[in-house]
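Journal club prep — side note

Before the paper discussion, L.F. wants everyone to see what a predicted structure for a comparable chain looks like in token form. Sequence:
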Amino acid sequence: MEMQKLKDAALYAVDKLLEEGADEAQSSAAEGRTEEFNVDAGEFSLIRSVFSSSIGLKAIKDKKKGTTAVNSLDKDDIDDAAKECVQAAISGAEDDAVCIAEKETNMDFRDGVLEGNKEKFFDSIIKFIDDVKKDYPQIMLEQVIANYSYGKHVFANSNGVLFSEEDGSYSISVMYSAHDGDKTTSFNYFDVETLDPGADIMELGMTRTMFERAVAELDAKPFEGKFVGTAVLSPICLTELISVITGSFCGDIALIEGTSPWKNLLGEKVASDSFTLKVIPNDSRIICGEKITAEGYKSENYDVIENGVLRSFCLTQYGANRTGLNRSPSTSGSVEVKAGGESLDEIIAKIDRGILVCRFSGGEPASNGDFSGVAKNSFLIENGKISRPLTETMISGNFAAMLKQVEGISRETLQDGGCVLPYAAFGGVTVSGGAQAE
């Protein structure tokens, strides 16, 4: 469907919602195409093309909200969905905070690769499989999902908002483990995005580093004992901490319910001076970043924490209305933790006793940031060196306290198309043996 026809469908849906009795209305119409290659146990298992179309509707009636969605852009289906949506609003609960976006400057966005090269991308996947077999024979590619994804999206509402976006990119998701005779490692995984169908996947992100560590993990042994020391989080593992910051500490639910330990700390120090967290959907290092928020605002970059000071919460307009605080300029998950001035080796050289955590498995942390779980694919640090790989080892601590005990942030960063993250070392983490493998 041409972009104008997609706009027409979105605008038609808004009109139908109003016609059915909505006071305010919005729609989000999308079409997409995915070319997918799957590899299982090192061999191609699936090649397919997937087409999709959908529209999501939102109606507000007497301060009550209704939503619905349908996987079709046909007018008859939109008509039925509009009726259902308004009826859901009529039977809903009254909420003074429900709203739709105010009109800004309407814009059309285009980003990425709008015409994919299926053959060239397929060749790059074959090369990757061959490179793994040649360079890392102990690595088993449990599963590889490689996609070229192209999509069009239109957002419209009854305030006159009309945004459109069109983008395309390549993504690779890899799950793997290492094997050598009777020895095997826990699985691990990573995702990378690129705009180049012929990219050397082995050189994207931290692919080689992760495979090299997996091979070293074949000699992992359990840790006995217990100590309080330093946890060095790998860039991928650092995303666990980021999700706690943006969700449990700064997100809608935490602030609406008043459970966030930072609810009264806007403008105050919540982390070490060296820690800066940004949300960066418009950064050039992000592949096809968020252009429009789910509520219908243009997405902008912003600081959550700047040199340790809490500058912004991560609130939607609804969350802002409920709390009396400001809406954040983006709902994107594309984040950057500002790199430091030391190498990873220099950071590790200063650690007497600690652990390099490359994957973490644990439940949701408590609302105050307390956590406990299993460090997987990880390594013991002793006397300023990585001494040996570990089997599953328990770690525990408090995320809020850790942020005030930053002992180092690396100048090396992972840039995988979705984020820009360094290694980060935090003190005050308890490491103990006896964890059960999962």
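L.F.'s comment for the group: The chain has a mean pLDDT of 95. Keep this in mind when we get to the figures.
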